[in-house]
Amino acid sequence: MNQVAELPVVANKLDGADEMLRVTDLHAFYGESHILHGIDFNVRRGELVTLLGRNGAGRSTALKSIMNMVGRRTGSIMVNGTETAAMPAHLIPRLGIGYCPEERGIFASLNVEENLLIPPTVRSGGMSLDEIYEMFPNLYERRKSQGTRLSGGEQQMLAMARILRTGARLLLLDEITEGLAPVIVAKLGEVLVQLKARGLTIVLVEQNFRFAAPLADRHFLMEHGSILAEITAKELPSWRERLNEHLGV
Q1: What is the reported pLDDT for 132?
Q2: Mean pLDDT of all residues in the chain?
Q3: pLDDT tens digits for 125-152?
Q4: Is residue 16 very low, low, confident or very high in pLDDT (cuts 50, 70, 90)?
Q5: Is 185 a residue whose pLDDT tops 90?
Q6: 113: which of 22, 95, 121, 246 lies 20 to 30 Å off by Cα?
Q7: Angle in degrees, 0-180, between the axes of helices 182-197 and 152-166, rounded to the nearest 10
């Protein structure tokens, strides 16, 4: 029997006031390609959850769908109590969502500090330059360097820092550790702990499960555009063997 079919999906009942994000029956398409097949998940305020799965499982598409950056989407996406399924993409960040894509999108013609001064304020409470430089000392040291002359790790820090400047309270982070040196990965882990302590809500798409495991409150395992299971941090030890099989780690 196919082991995937036996994995339990745990129903999560939450008070609506406790939710920052609820995704219900979300389908996403690129042209005629049907990528997401009715996924459901939710995220509490101040929680860090991961979307786990192999490449092609639909994890990055899930984040892009929340931001309305796919060809077509159907279903319900509630952000802080507001339905966004029919909302234009340019209005969604104003709800306090920050999206950090895998490509990072650093402006090559601007230095680090200029990159940090560009983002618009979407909510009050955005981090000041001093707070950013305290959290990311590397950026202070390189603040007059062109953004694309930074190392890969420094560019990732800059991409995250720009979001934090906006005042976003819900962060969608796509593969932030990919290709980075272990010392930078460890630093990003420290940053995520600090952001949780500040009360930010985080959805993390991550291939590096060993990085994500100690940080997350819950994990959603994805395969072929569907969510196979929801796993709490407490349940994680009993899932490790099955996760090794499904993630190939």
Answers
A1: 96
A2: 90
A3: 899 999 999 999 999 999 999 988 899 9
A4: low
A5: yes
A6: 95
A7: 10
CA nearest to 220, candidates 41, 5, 23: 41
Q: Which residue has the higher pLDDT, 21 or 55?
A: 21
Tokens of 139: 């950026």
Two tokens, residue 124? 């009050």
CA distances from 201 to 89, 99, 118 (A): 20, 12, 23
CA distance 90 to 110: 23
Other C-beta atoms closer than 10 Å to the C-beta of 184 total: 19
Write out the DSSP string of 196-234. HHTT-EEEEE-S-HHHHTTT-SEEEEEETTEEEEEEETT
How many residues make up the chain in this entry?
A: 249
DSSP 3-state of 192: helix
Distance of CA 188 to the CA centre of its chain: 13
* Model confidence pTM above 0.85: yes
CA distance 162 to 152: 16
Q: Report how far apart, in Å, the C-alpha atoms of 163 and of each of 36, 97, 144, 249 are.
A: 26, 9, 19, 30
For the record, the structure tokens of 105 come out as: 């999108």
Instruction: Give the CA angle between residues 248, 52, 216 to the nearest 5°.
Output: 120
Q: What is the DSSP letter of 30?
A: E
User: Which residue in this structure is represented by tokens 């709490």?
Assistant: 232
Structure tokens at 88: 């234009």
Backbone angles phi, psi at 151, to 5 degrees: -65, 165
